[in-house]
Amino acid sequence: MIILLALAALALTFTVDVNIADQPGIRMVLPAQLGPWRGTELRFCHNSACLKDFTLDQLTDPAKCPACGSELFTMSLAEYEQLPKDTEFLKGRYTNAASEEVFASLVLSGRERESIHRPERCLVGQGNSINKSYVLEVPLAGRKPLGVMVLETSRPVDTHTGKRELPGYYAYWFAGQGRETPLHWERMFWLGWDRIIHSIAHKWAYIAIAGRRDSAQLYQDQISSFVGQLYPHVHLSTPAPGQGP
User: Fold this and answer.
1) Per-domain boundaries in the chain
2) I need a surface site. Which of 79, 95, 106, 174 has the fewest CB within 10 A?
3) Taking the model in full, what pTM does it have?
C-alpha cells in the first residue's frame, strides 16, 4: 500500500494545480557562534577571470570583491548557473579550538523543484568519489534523534610527494513544512503527497555540513556535535500539512 501511494504521489506531483506556499522549511541563518564552533559566512566572486571566495570578516564591503571590484554572491558561479535564480543559498566556514574545520550550507528552494536535488550529483560533478553512504542518528535534546545522510568522500589532491586521496565527509538532511528526512525518495513522496492531498507546495530546503574524515568515531562525533549546535537555529517548529491550524 505504501509503495502504491508513493508511486501515485510521484506520478501526480507535477500534474495537479497547487498553491505555492512562501513559508520556508528552515530559517536561513548561520550564527557566528555555535557552541565551540566559531564561523563566518562566505561570499563568492562571479567574474570568470577572478572567481575568488572570501569570508565576511575579510571584507570591508560584503557586496564587492576586493580583488576585482565585481559583485559578490552567496553561492559559487557554478551553483548560480545551475540552479533556478530564486534559490536561496548560504554558506559558512567554522573552526573550533582544536583547529578543526567544518563547512556549512543552507539551500532553500524557490518555486521550481530543481532548486533542491540529491547532493550526490553535485559532489561527483566536482570531482569527488562517494565511497560509502549511510544514515547517522544524531541525538537532539527534547526529541527523537535526527536522521542525517552521511557520505564518505575522497578526492585526488596534489602534494609535494605526488597525488593522494583526501578523505572527507558530507552530511545532510532535507527539511520541509513540519517534515524532515535524510532520504531523497521520502522528500519526493511528501512533496507529491502535499500537492495531491493538500493542494499545496511548500519550500523545501537542505542543510549540509562537510569536513575532513579521520577515524570513523572522530568524524561522526564531529557531525553530531556540529548538527546538535546548528539544529535549534535553523529548525522551524511548524506542523506538517493537515496536522495543525
Assistant:
1) 2-40+87-234
2) 95
3) 0.85
For the chain, report the end-to-end CA distance as a whole number of angstroms.
28
| Cα distance between residue 243 and residue 192, in whole Å | 17
**Which residue, 91, 222, 124, 105, is CA-closest to 172?**
105
Q: What angle do CA 44, 22, 183 make, to 5 degrees?
A: 70
Query: Residue 218 corresponds to which amino acid?
Result: L
Residue 144 per-residue DSSP state: P
Identity of the residue numbered 211: G
Radius of gyration over alpha carbons of the chain, in Å?
19
- Of the candidates 202, 243, 190, the one whose C-alpha atom is nearest the C-alpha of residue 19 is 202
239, three cell numbers: 506542523
Residues 6+ positions from 1 with CB-CB distance below 8 Å: none
Give Cα separations from 238 to 17, 45, 94, 195, 208 (angstroms).
24, 36, 28, 18, 21
Q: How would you classify the pairing of strands 37-45 and 72-73?
A: antiparallel
Work out whether strand 200-201 and strand 19-20 pair parallel, antiparallel, or are unpaired: parallel
- Which of 226-236 are b and which e, b meaning 16 or more Cβ less than 10 Å from the residue's Cβ? bbbbbbeebbe
The span from the CA of 116 to the CA of 129, in Å, is 21
* DSSP conformation class of 74: S
pLDDT in tens, 123-147: 877 778 899 999 999 999 888 999 9
The distance from CA 51 to its chain's CA centroid, rounded to whole angstroms, is 22
At 56 the three-state DSSP class reads: helix
Dist CA 239 CA 245 (whole Å):
8
